[in-house]
Design a protein that fits this description.
Layout: H1 12-31, H2 37-41, E1 44-51, E2 57-64, H3 70-79, H4 81-91, E3 99-104, H5 107-119, H6 121-124, H7 134-139
Parallel strand pairs: 2-3
Antiparallel strand pairs: 1-2
Helix pairs in contact: 1-4
Length: 148
């Protein structure tokens, strides 16, 4: 059987199981099944789950709402890793229970930084261009030049 891969290089099966794990974790946190004061008072987004090729390890990218108390939320998730792993193992049918590793998701910060750069005035400033001769206009050779 031929192995199907996505453009990123990961197989469809890894992506599908990672998405199932993400849904299970999101449901557990949303319903308040984790008995932890920090996790019950903070809204946490599970943005992505990346599975290892052997499906034994899962890297879970999380982001608290508005990015507040990120370290406190990560510490609470890491303290409740055993419970979360057990619940994921019961709800996702794979041969081995994946070990969960929680990491803060920095992609939102990176995207807002790129957005700030794109919206800055530096991007819209253009260097001075040379003037176009009327003969070049007649010949249609004026691409890339600004008219003055």
């Amino acid at each position: 059987m031929r192995r199907q891969e996505t453009p990123e290089g990961r197989s469809v099966r890894l992506l599908r199981i990672g998405e199932q794990v993400r849904h299970v974790l999101s449901e557990l946190l949303q319903r308040g099944d984790v008995h932890d004061g920090v996790l019950q008072t903070h809204l946490v987004s599970i943005t992505e789950v990346r599975m290892s090729p052997d499906l034994r390890h899962a890297t879970v990218f999380v982001k608290p709402l508005l990015g507040q108390d990120e370290e406190v939320v990560l510490k609470a998730l890491r303290q409740n890793t055993a419970y979360l792993q057990r619940e994921v193992a019961h709800r996702v049918r794979v041969k081995y229970a994946a070990k969960l590793k929680f990491i803060a998701d920095e992609s939102f910060d990176e995207s807002s930084h790129i957005d700030r750069i794109l919206r800055s005035q530096l991007l819209f400033e253009r260097p001075a261009t040379k003037e176009i001769e009327p003969s070049a206009l007649a010949a249609g050779n004026c691409w890339g030049y600004r008219f003055r």
